[in-house]
Amino acid sequence: MRITRAFKTSGVATRIGRKGAMQAGDTICRLTIAVLLGASMTACSLGSAGIPSSPEKVTVPEISFTIPAPERWTMDNGIEVYYYHNDELPQVRGVMYFPGGSLSDYSGITGLASAVGDQMREGATTEVAPDDLDRRLDSLAASIETDFGREYGTAGFFSLTEDFDEVFGLYADVIQRPGFDVSRLELWKKLVANSIVRRKDSPDKMAGMAFAEQIYGKGSPFARSVDADSLALITPDRMRQFHRRFVRPDGAKLAISGALSRKQIEAALEKHFGSWPEGHYVRPSLPKVDYTPQAGIYVLERDFDQATVLIGHQGPARHTPDQYDISIYNRVFGHGGFGSTLFKEIRSRLGLAYSVYGGISSGVVRGVFQMSMGTRATQAEKAIKKAIELSAETKSELPDEKSFNDAKSAVQRSFVFRFASPDYIARRAVILKLLGYAEDYDQTYLANIEKVSREDVLAVGKKRIRPEDFVVVVVGRVSAEQLANAFAGTADVYRLDFDTVPRVVGRVLPTQK
Amino acid sequence: MRPIRLFRFTLAFSLCLLASGFIRPDAHAEEADTTRPLSERSTKEILHRLAEGVQRITLSNGLRVLYFRRAQAPVFSAQIWVKVGGVDEVPGVTGVAHMLEHMAFKGSTTIGTKDYEKEKKLLDQFERLQVELEKTQKAGEKPEAETLANIKSLRAKLEELWIPNEFSNVYQRQGGVGLNAATGKDYTYYLISLPTVAFELWAWMESDRLLNPVFRQFYKERDVVLEERRMRTDDSPGGKLYEALLASAFWAHPNRLPIIGWPSDLAQLSVSDVREFYKAHYRPDNMVVSLIGDLEPEQVRSTLEKYFGRIPAATSDLREVSVREEKQEGARESTVYFDAEPRFALAYHKPVYPLHKDDLHFGVLHGVLSEGRSSIFYRELVKEKQLASSVSSSEAPGERFPNLFFVWASPRHGVGNEKLITAVDEILERLKTEAVPQKDIDAAKKRIRVDILNTLASNSGLARTLAHAELLWGDWEVLFEMYDTMLSTTSDDLKRLAQTYFTPANRTLVRLERRKKAVAKEK
C-alpha cells in the first residue's frame, strides 16, 4: 500500500497551572501550551499533625501532560486511518466512520438508515450466513457491530490479537459485502414493531418524541420516528442502495488501536480494504430546519406518579463563535452535575427532583436548549416555573464569580481525562474531524476556555435563551386544566395523546382567572 | 442487579462480578505455554504482573488500602467501599443505607458551611422541631402554627450558613470526574477520578467526610430520594417487577427489602436513623480503599497514613446479619398489575461463594444462556421461535448471602407471558438432561477471559474489582481461585446446576400484566 498522505502529529505538551504561567513565553509553535487557571495555591497552613485546615490550603500543583496524538495516513481509495498503539492488553479494536446518515438520506423512508445500520452486521455477508457469523464471533469472544445515526454510520470490531486476522476479514466483509439476509430483516422489523408498541410504557420516550416534534415540526428529519408504514417500505434492495451510497472508502475514517504494530495494521488494511473501490454518489446537503415552533405547554396525562418534564427550544448549530462560552454557560447552568444552578436549586435546595439537568447542545443544522427533570406530579407546576425562572435569570444576571470560576476550572482541569483512555484517543481524533472541528481544536482548547469571561456567559444567556419560545412537555399524573389555569396569561396549554406517536388533541383553555 | 446510584446521568456500568476480575490459568499451562492460545498466555502474564503490582497497606486502625500503579496518564481513580448495604437494614428503616450515601455528599464541619459552630446550634433545634412536627403529622393532628413558623425561620437562617454542594464543587474545581456513589445490598461505595496532582486533596476530602460528616439538608434530600424511588420503581415496570420478585422469593432474609426503601419508611426516616447507621457501619475495619493510577508508592503510603490514620479504630463488634432464609418448600407465583406491555421474572434460590462453589459455575451458565447472539436464549427465543423481544439471565440481589438465579423476559407484542414462560421452562428443563455442547462452554469461557481483560483496562474497573473482592471475601486474591473454578466448569457441572436448583419447589415466578378492564372499573 502506498501511503498517499502521512502526517504524524507530534504530541503536545500541556500544562494547566497557575496564573502567570502563560507569560513564561510558551508558544503554540513550540507545541507547548500553558494555561492560566485560578487554582488555589495558597501556602500550606498546617493544623495538627500537619493536616491543612481546609481543602483550599492543600497544595495542588500544576497538571502537566502531553496530548497524545494518533498516527494518521490515507489509503489510495480514500480511507483515512487513525492509529494508536496500545499494547497493555493483547487486543485490537477499531471503528470505521462513514459520513452521511438519516439526515442526508433523501429516500424519504424513515428508518432506512437505522435498518442498514443494524442489518449490515445482523444480516451477515454474502459469504457467511447470519447464524454462522453469530456463532463464529461468539466462539472467538469477538464482536462486530454496526450502526447508522443522523450524521454518520459506524462499524466497529473488537478482537483478541490472536484472532485478529480472521475477525478483521469478517469485519471487511460486513462492511463491503453485507448480505442483508431477508429473514433477519423480517426479525428486525418485528422487534422494531414491538418497541413501537412499548413506547407508551416509558414516560421518557413519550416526552422525548413529543418534544422533538414540537421543536422541529412533525415529519422533520430531526423528529420523525419509524412506524408500521415506513417499516413496510424497507426492503433489501433499498438497503443495498443506501449502502452503496454511504458505505464507501472515500470519506471513511478508521480509528484503530491495540497491540499490533503499524506495519501489521497497514498489511491487514491493504489485504482487506485495499481493493475496495471508491463510491460515486454525491452526498446530498443536509436538510434545512425552517419550522417555527408553537410555544406552549404540551400535556400528556398519564398514570405516572412522577411527571417527566422537558423544556426548551431550538438551539445553535455546531462551531458557533461562542462555543467555548456555551461550554462554560452549560457547566454553570445545568450540565455541571452537583455544582450547576439547576441541580443546586431544584434538587438540593427544593428537593423537587432526583434527575435534573439542562443546557445548550449544538447540533449539525440546529441544536437545542433543553432542560429535563422528573418531579412528583403534584409539584410539576412549581418545578416548571422554577426551571423557567432560573433559565430566564441567565439572560439578565452575570453568573456569580465563584460558580463561574469553579466551572472554568472544572472544564480545564478535567481536560486531561479526554485522553486518559488509550482506546479512545484515535476515536476522539476521528470524531472531531468528522464533525468538522479545526485541526488544532485540542491544542487551542484550554486557551480558548481561558478567554471566556463572565460577560461572555451572560451574553450566551441573552442571545441563546428565549423563555417566550419555550416548548414545555409534561407527561404524568397532571391535569391539563389545572396547568392551563396555573399558566393562564403566560403560556398556552395543549393536550397531547399518545398511542405510538404523539398527537396534539387541542388547546385547553383556562377556566378561571 | 446493579446497585442504585447517587446520580442519574453518569455512564452506567454493570457491576457483575462474574464477568469481571482476573484469572490465573491452570498449572498445566505453565509447561505447555507456547501451545496455548495467546490470550491465555497473555492473560497469565498480565495477571502475574498484576498480582505482583498490587500492594495492600493496612493502617493501624484496620483500614485496608489496595494500590496499583498505572502511569498511562497523570490521573488516578479512587474508590472507598464500605461493607454495608440493604441487607444490614431492618423493617421500619428500609432505605437508610442509601439515604446515608446521599447524605455523605452534604459536607462536614468544614465543607458546606460558613460557620459550623453557629450552624450546629440551629441545626439541633431544627431537627428537634422537625421530628416533633412529623410525630404530630403522623398522629393525624394539625401542627401548631408556631412550630411551623419556627421551622421556617430556622431553615432560612440555616440556608444563610449553608454552601450547597460544596463537597462536589471542591472536586470538580480540581478536575474531578465521575464523582458518584452507589448502594447495593452488600456494600456502599464512593468513587471519583482526579488528576494525580490532586491526590493529597482527595485524601483530605475523603478522610474529612469520614471523620466529621454533617448530615445537613436532610429533609430536602429525603424528598429527592422519594423522587428517585418514583423514577426507578413506582413508574417503572421493570422496577416494580424486581421489587415484587424479591419480596416473593425471600420471606425472612432482608434480601426481600428494596434498597431504596419502602415509601412509608422513607417518609419517616430521621437524621438520627442515619447517624446511628453511620456509626455502626462506617468504621475503618469495615472499609476498603482502592487507588489505581499514576501515583508514587511512597506518596500513597505516607498520605494514607497521615490522613486516614486519624480515623479511630472501632472498639465494638460489628453488627452482623443473623437471620437466614429458610429453604423454599414450594413454588411461589405472584402478579403485578401495571399499565405496560407484559413481562416476567423467574427465579431460583442458589448459594453463594465461598460457602458453595456452584456459585462460580453459574458464571459459565449465564454465558451459555444469555451472552451473545448465539446464546441459547437469544438464539431460540428471539431468533428462532420469535417469542421474546428480550430475555436474559442474571443473579440478584447481592453476594454476601444466598441469592437468586433469575431470568428476565419480555414477550413480543401479542405473544403474552404464558407462551414465553413455557419456552423458558423447556430450556431450563432441557439443561437437566442434555449436555451443553463443549464448544458453547468454551466460547463462554473465552468471553469470561475477554471480560476480565477489559475490566483491567480502565483504572476505575480495576479499582472496582479489587475493592469489591477484598471487601466481600477478605482477600482480593481469592479471585484467582474463583476464576480457576469458573473456568474448570464442565457440561456435567451445568447439568448438575440445573438438576439441583431449577426445581419446582425452589421456584418463584412474578408476572407483570395489565389489569383486566373489568377489574379496572372497580378502582
Using the CA coordinates, give the radius of gyration of chain A. 26 Å
Strand content of chain A: 15-25%
Tell me the strand percentage band of chain B. Answer: 15-25%
- Sheet having the most strands of chain B: 7 strands, mixed
The CATH C-level name of the domain at 332-522 in chain B is Alpha Beta
Dominant shape of chain B: globular
Q: What's the architecture of the domain at 332-522 in chain B, going by CATH?
A: 2-Layer Sandwich
Structural class of chain A: alpha+beta
| Strand order across the largest sheet of chain A | 1-5-6-10-7-9-8
CATH superfamily of the domain at 332-522 in chain B: Metalloenzyme, LuxS/M16 peptidase-like
Major beta-sheet overview of chain A: 7 strands, mixed
Low-confidence stretches of chain B: 8-36, 519-523
Q: Tell me roughly what share of residues is in helical segments of chain A.
A: 25-40%
CATH superfamily of the largest domain in chain A, called what? Metalloenzyme, LuxS/M16 peptidase-like
Labels describing this entry:
heterodimer, A: 513 residues, alpha+beta, Cytochrome Bc1 Complex, Chain A, domain 1, seven-stranded mixed sheet, disordered N terminus, B: 523 residues, five-stranded mixed sheet
Q: What topology emerges from the helices and strands here?
A:
The complex is a heterodimer of chains A (513) and B (523).
Chain A: E1 5-8, E2 12-16, E3 32-35, E4 63-67, E5 71-74, E6 80-85, E7 91-99, H1 112-122, H2 130-139, E8 143-148, E9 152-160, H3 164-176, H4 182-198, H5 203-216, H6 228-233, H7 236-246, E10 253-258, H8 262-273, E11 296-301, E12 306-315, H9 323-335, H10 341-349, E13 353-361, E14 367-376, H11 380-393, H12 401-413, H13 422-434, H14 441-450, H15 454-464, E15 471-476, H16 480-486, E16 493-498, E17 502-508
Parallel strand pairs in A: 2-3, 6-10, 11-15, 11-16
Antiparallel strand pairs in A: 1-5, 2-4, 5-6, 7-9, 7-10, 8-9, 12-14, 12-15, 13-14, 16-17
Chain B: E1 4-5, H1 28-31, H2 38-53, E2 55-58, E3 64-69, E4 75-82, H3 96-103, H4 116-138, H5 145-161, H6 166-173, E5 177-183, E6 188-195, H7 199-211, H8 218-234, H9 237-249, H10 263-267, H11 271-281, E7 287-293, H12 297-308, E8 332-337, E9 343-350, H13 358-370, H14 376-384, E10 388-396, E11 403-411, H15 417-433, H16 438-457, H17 459-473, H18 478-487, H19 491-501, E12 507-513, H20 517-522
Parallel strand pairs in B: 3-7, 8-12
Antiparallel strand pairs in B: 1-5, 2-3, 4-6, 4-7, 5-6, 9-11, 9-12, 10-11
